[in-house]
Design a protein that fits this description.
Helix content: 25-40%
Number of strands: 27
Strand content: 15-25%
Shape: globular
Structural class: alpha+beta
Length: 700
């Protein structure tokens, strides 16, 4: 029997005798028809991958030979585009006569290996509803990225085409998808669903959203609007909790919030509280979802994202089918470059306790407009993760009740630590392909130098104390010391001062974390005025003109020292920082203007002063070498790191003993009550928090 006949036979028997089905994933087209995101949903070219060599190839028609890597990139850039006029429907698309459209794309290919690994599903059903004549080709891939034809269905009459698909061969990776070919007339896909036996699901859950916001009213309102307008999503939604910690509050905009509140009713609840950071905002939403509502899951969401709403439905569905309660995360696309995938999967390096990329996901900033899913071998291997960022991450409420809320760490590492903690308690995390949001990437942020560096340093060390398997934290202390040295020789004294404070606060133990959650940020901001490198102005024109006696290295280009020479080079540079006097001219005029991307430690260390721009390109600061500051900070960093090293075992035991206590509902209830929203003229302070919308519980 040929492939077409087999597929047709399967269609008849499945439709007539199959078990009750539940939709796992359905065909979607972009809600916002913009050329930069169309390649994530639909493509107009055939493609294949030379998986054995890892190079990519594209072909314009069946039977064409593959091309090399350079040719592939050029061909990809020039390939046929889908006319945006075709994309007027959310779940249907017209294939022009004599053309093909592929759904082997990020949002429409079915991630078979993830369903094979994390759920009991071992076979699925693809159902495609069509009008017109054409052909459907069902494709699959292997973990190596090899593409294989699974079935061909000749369509000669309007109706429903169904094919059964096994998941037995997807242990390490692979996707399913289908391509549609039109005959002499247009061929319309009215819809398509991937389904499985409904009784394989553990539950049929609902979800709440925990969205933390601070002075990003426009973003937040748009996300509320996206939820309100999606009827399928609303059927699964319990309550959307928006935890407002800003000074520009949602409730200050009744003309915009009012209609949304009316549309959502009890499904929207705005909670105002003091600024206790992302960990405080997310913990509040998780707390409400786990105590006040009936939701099976809570989805933590940043406020400044653009949501593909179907992603939330897919996350809930996957969690329903997961073999055990599982955290399900969405991927992150670049909000300012919509076809670029920024985060596909993340792990924690066990030695250094730093975020890292899995070997199966070697790239960040992958552009689907240039390298489609079908032609990118590494995207076909399943990527397993340690955690998922809380830009969008589903957590079962039973998990929250079992392991507690976030660490009270204000911002940074709260999502990472929670994923590690959940894993240790038997709750894995899955970053699910086909579920994603768009978010501003951290590549264009200055958080490694500004006040956030305190939270990076402190919270990373706390995470290491809680989760490192190595004596004395493995490489954490040594790497931290090395980073301090780099900041000192780079004239980044505010940054180093914040890091020293972080290290000293770790030594205080865990019990101060709740008490300091609202006061630490004001302290860090108050320190800004004490340091030239943190006193930013509009740009280089705000400072004196550049003047210098002579350029370093006789004007030759500066490069990082060779690894073998690094210890001697560092000692030489540190000796200069400690002892060499600065010149009178450098104290009154910067010696150079250095763009942020060029402001490497090995370059900055050669100057006595320089104007350096920030990551956003909006401001600049005048760095000035100060040997006295270097001497004092060097002594302090050596002291704190020695103390951390000597006290590691006792600190580890103290933090681990306290972990359950400081992440408990009771501890967070006290913190919520201690940090109400500031009362402004005209406000009525009637409780420990201010609410609009549904009734919910109280945090007193």
């Amino acid at each position: 029997m040929n492939a077409t006949a087999t597929a047709e036979s399967t269609s008849r028997t499945s439709a007539e005798e199959g078990a009750p089905q539940r939709v796992l994933q359905r065909l979607i087209l972009p809600a916002e028809v913009s050329p930069d995101i169309v390649p994530l949903y639909i493509e107009a070219e055939e493609a294949h991958s030379r998986a054995a060599s890892g190079s990519l190839g594209l072909r314009g028609e069946i039977g064409a030979s593959s091309v090399g890597q350079d040719d592939a990139v050029e061909a990809s850039a020039a390939r046929t585009r889908v006319d945006v006029n075709e994309l007027s429907e959310r779940h249907a698309v017209r294939v022009p006569a004599h053309a093909m459209r592929s759904f082997g794309t990020y949002f429409n290919a079915f991630p078979a290996s993830y369903w094979r690994r994390w759920t009991p599903v071992r076979k699925i059903r693809l159902t495609v509803r069509t009008v017109g004549r054409g052909q459907l080709i069902v494709m699959r891939s292997t973990a190596r990225g090899s593409l294989q034809r699974h079935a061909a269905i000749d369509v000669s009459v309007d109706g429903e085409q169904t094919v059964e698909l096994p998941l037995s061969a997807f242990g390490d990776g692979g996707w399913y998808w289908f391509d549609a070919y039109a005959s002499g007339d247009d061929f319309t896909i009215l819809g398509a669903e991937w389904t499985a036996d409904a009784d394989l699901a553990r539950t049929e859950g609902t979800f709440s959203i925990a969205m933390t916001t601070m002075n990003k009213v426009e973003y937040c309102l748009e996300n509320i609007r996206t939820i309100a307008e999606d009827s399928a999503l609303r059927e699964l939604l319990d309550v959307m909790y928006v935890v407002d910690q800003g000074s520009d509050r949602l409730n200050d905009h009744p003309e915009d919030l009012g209609p949304l509140q009316e549309a959502l009713g009890a499904q929207l609840e705005v909670i105002e509280q003091g600024n206790i950071g992302g960990s405080g905002g997310f913990s509040r939403g998780m707390y409400e979802a786990s105590t006040s509502g009936s939701a099976t899951y809570v989805i933590n969401c940043d406020d400044d994202i653009v949501i593909e709403p179907e992603s939330l439905i897919r996350m809930v569905t996957f969690a329903d089918f997961a073999t055990r309660p599982t955290l399900v995360g969405a991927h992150m696309f670049d909000l300012n470059n919509r076809s670029v995938l920024h985060a596909f999967g993340e792990i924690v390096d066990p030695w250094t306790i730093q975020p890292a990329l899995p070997t199966s996901a070697p790239e960040m900033q992958h552009d689907f407009a240039q390298q489609p899913l079908r032609s990118t071998p590494w995207l076909h291997r399943r990527t397993d993760v340690d955690y998922n960022g809380w830009w969008t991450c589903l957590i079962p409420t039973e998990t929250v009740r079992a392991i507690g809320l976030s660490l009270p760490v204000f911002i940074k590492w709260d999502d990472t630590e929670y994923g590690l903690r959940a894993r240790n308690h038997g709750y894995p995390t899955v970053s699910l392909p086909g579920a994603a949001v768009w978010h501003v990437t951290w590549a264009d942020k200055n958080d490694a130098l500004d006040w956030q560096v305190y939270f990076h340093e402190r919270n990373r060390i706390i995470t290491a104390l809680l989760h490192s398997h190595y004596e004395r934290g493995g490489g954490v202390i040594g790497e931290s010391q090395s980073i301090d040295i780099k900041h000192l020789i780079s004239m980044q004294y505010y940054t180093e001062s914040a890091r020293l404070k972080a290290q000293a606060d770790v030594l205080r133990g865990p019990d101060y974390l709740h008490d300091a959650i609202a006061s630490t940020l004001p302290e860090l901001r108050a320190m800004v005025a004490e340091f030239d490198d943190s006193s930013a102005k509009e740009g280089a024109e705000s400072f004196p003109t550049v003047r210098r006696e002579r350029p370093p290295r006789k004007g030759r280009d500066m490069r990082a020292p060779h690894r073998a020479l690094l210890p001697a080079w560092t000692l030489k540079m540190m000796a200069r920082q400690l002892a060499a006097p600065t010149t009178e001219l450098s104290r009154h005029h910067p010696q150079a203007e250095i763009p942020h991307q060029d402001a490497k430690w090995w370059r900055l260390s050669r100057f006595d002063s320089a104007v350096v721009s920030n990551a956003e390109g909006t401001k600049a600061a005048w760095y000035k070498r100060d040997p006295e500051k270097v001497r004092g900070m060097l002594v302090e960093t050596l002291r704190t790191h020695a103390a951390l090293l000597m006290q590691w075992s006792s600190l580890r035991d103290t933090y681990r003993e306290a972990a359950e206590r400081i992440t408990s509902f009771e501890a967070w209830e006290r913190t919520f009550a201690a940090n109400p929203a500031p009362v402004r003229p005209g406000d009525e302070a009637t409780s420990t928090d201010a609410r609009s919308g549904g009734t919910g519980g109280t945090a007193a």
